[in-house]
Amino acid sequence: MRVVAGNYGGRNLKTLDGKLTRPTGDKVRAAMFSMIGPFFEGGRVLDLYAGSGGLAIEAISRGMSSAVLVERDRKAQTIILDNIEMTKELNKFSLLKMDARRALKQLSGPFDLVFLDPPYAKETVGNDISSLDSLQVLSDRVIIVCETDESVVLPDSIGEFEIIRQKRYGISKVTIYERGDHD
Fold first, then answer.
1. Phi/psi at 82 (nearest 5 deg)?
2. d(Cα 131, Cα 146) in Å, to the nearest integer?
3. I need a labelling partner for 7 at 20 to 30 A (CA). Which of 62, 76, 85, 127 fits?
4. Helices 54-61, 74-87: crossing angle, 10 deg rounding
5. Cβ contacts of residue 35 below 8 Å, gap of 6+?
6. What whole-number distance in Å separates Cα of residue 59 and Cα of residue 62?
7. Would 8 be classed as within a structural domain?
8. Which residues contact 165 (CB under 8 A, 6 or more apart)?
9. Can you state the angle between helices 26-36 and 54-61, rounded to 10 degrees?
10. Is residue 14 part of a domain?
11. Is residue 17 part of a domain?
């Protein structure tokens, strides 16, 4: 796996062996960013289930200013730290070594881009979006990118957030939410 584009484009990313973190493959990551960007002029990223950290690192590579990554698994935390080290810009990243529920109580916003790729997406994505919104840590123009198994059906709207795009890539589905009143 490698960073697809931007300042770190082409650099290798480490991943965990096995199915624990299900890293987003290069092709899906490239497609995901073409759906939302593909490049940015600043902003803060939250990756609530960071795994290898690839999504947040890709976002910083493409112009986001800083990222908060949340990961509870110790082996994954080590991989994330190695991947952040590769960027040579450690000051742009903050790793919270805890589960998402605990992290939600400690976050301060605003976040402009949020990645949600939870292990049990159907039960979690809606609650995560609702929690983030109620905590008022999302910017007015936040983009929320959810990666799930293709079989997961997410609601068309969650609070004031609506699906603006959804696409299947093999066994993965990418769903993007924005606020419904974001004109």
1. -65, -45
2. 15
3. 76
4. 20
5. 145, 165, 167, 174, 176
6. 5
7. no
8. 35, 174, 175, 176
9. 50
10. no
11. no
124 or 77: which leads in pLDDT: 77
Cβ atoms within 10 Å, residue 180: 12
Assess if residue 57 is contained within a domain: yes
State the residue range of the domain holding 108. 26-179
Question: 96: domain CATH number?
Answer: 3.40.50.150
Name the helix (H) or strand (E) containing 94: strand 93-96
Domain count, the chain: 1
DSSP reduced 3-state for 90? helix
The widest CA-to-CA distance across the chain, in whole angstroms, is 43
The model's pLDDT over 101-121, given as tens digits with 9 standing for 90+, comes to 999 999 998 999 999 988 766
C-alpha to C-alpha distances, 114 to 67, 117, 144, nearest whole angstrom: 10, 10, 5
Residue-wise pLDDT for 36-55, tens only, equals 988 999 999 999 999 999 99
Closest CA to 18 of 62, 79, 104, 109: 79
How far apart are the two ends of the chain, measured CA to CA in Å?
36
Predicted TM-score (pTM) of the model is 0.93
Amino acid at 144: I
Neighbours of 101 (CB within 10 A): 13
Number of H helices, E strands in the chain: 5, 8
